[in-house]
Design goal:
By secondary structure, the chain is an alpha/beta fold. It has a single domain, classed as Rossmann fold (3-Layer(aba) Sandwich). It is built from 14 helices and seven strands. The strands form two sheets. A five-stranded parallel beta sheet has the order 2-1-3-4-6.
């Protein structure tokens, strides 16, 4: 009995601490703390609501990171192609799984999903798992229902990986010890299609801070597995998937070993039977068209890239590689 009591006295404190951690972790779910995440949460909610609003209409949905959010104009695409277009892109760190699981419930037979994914998605050094820290924090703050839908072992992983400081900050906000972030909501705009509303111009000081990034394709990215699974799901549900290259600063892309990686990316999509729009160089841009990262285009660059995107999509339609059920006629020149 003394031995059991002794062992119990040793085990009890850690068990109490673990239990307290689990309680506090779930207590703070959905509490906004960081202003930038709260703003991002509003944008994401608006985008998901857009896709849901047009759930029963044929549509073209763009899924990608901030590259397409900033560098493509869905309103222009919709106006020219005469098909509802939603720019559902927001941030690359979301990863394929979060995007797909959030949006696929609102995709219907006849829809087209275009994936101009950043090169990070193909590199296991950056995309070696489903969720990185930024995405986990975003979900816990802004989309707790998604967390609740995870499997038990996945929830355990999130419990282990979440930093105590972030939980403490949320508990402080929920208990009134700290003020919540102030975020201004946007007026309802029925014509909005998920495009960025900010104005971006080239600024040499900002541009000069862009650091060159090297990419490699090793075929080990978890994102590739998720993409393959999504293509299978889409085919089963008669949802068309089209791949595209992201807008990118040319000088940071064309250097070896990038050429090998780009060829591997095309081979990956061909292996899945997914059409790819154009070639990487179709989406290369000069420094004057880029502002703060190699992926983000200025207003002028966005106009050029959007038109290039439309032209490449129409070329694929005319070649029979992409099926346009009700909007193919809009591509006729």
């Amino acid at each position: 009995m003394k031995t059991l009591a002794y062992l119990g006295s040793i085990a009890l404190p850690p068990l109490v601490m673990v239990g307290l951690w689990v309680v506090l972790f779930h207590y703070q779910l959905g509490v906004p703390v960081e202003r930038h995440l709260a703003k991002r949460g509003l944008r994401w909610e608006e985008k998901v609501n857009l896709v849901e609003r047009f759930a029963n209409r044929q549509k073209l949905v763009i899924i990608s990171g901030s590259n397409s959010y900033i560098s493509l104009a869905a309103k222009t695409i919709e106006r020219q192609l005469k098909v509802v277009t939603v720019n559902a892109a927001l941030m690359a760190s979301f990863g394929v799984r979060y995007y797909v699981e959030s949006l696929s419930p609102y995709l219907r037979s006849g829809d087209t999903v275009v994936l101009p994914l950043e090169y990070f998605f193909y590199d296991s050094r950056y995309a070696g798992k489903d969720y990185n820290f930024d995405t986990q924090l975003f979900v816990l703050r802004q989309d707790p229902d998604y967390y609740r839908g995870l499997s038990l072992d996945e929830k355990l992983g999130w419990l282990i990986n979440t930093h105590p400081a972030s939980v403490a900050a949320a508990v402080a906000v929920k208990t009134g010890l700290s003020p919540p972030p102030q975020v201004t909501t946007r007026p309802k705009n029925r014509g909005w299609r998920g495009d960025v509303l900010s104005e971006f111009v080239h600024k040499p000081k900002l541009f000069n801070k862009i650091k060159p990034v090297s990419y490699r394709y090793d075929g080990q990215s978890v994102q590739l597995e998720r993409l393959a699974a999504f293509v299978t799901w889409a085919r089963r549900n008669n949802v068309q998937v089209v791949a595209a290259y992201p807008s990118h600063l040319s000088s940071a892309t064309v250097k070896p070993p990038a050429a090998d990686m780009l060829a591997s990316i095309e081979a990956f999509w061909r292996g899945l039977g997914v059409p790819v729009l154009g070639q990487p160089q179709n989406s290369y841009y000069k420094p004057r068209h880029v502002f703060d990262t190699a992926y983000h285009l200025t207003n002028e660059g966005r106009k050029i890239h959007t038109q290039q995107f439309i032209d490449l999509l129409c070329d694929a339609v005319s070649e029979g590689r992409v099926t346009a059920q009700n909007w193919g006629a809009s591509c006729e020149r």
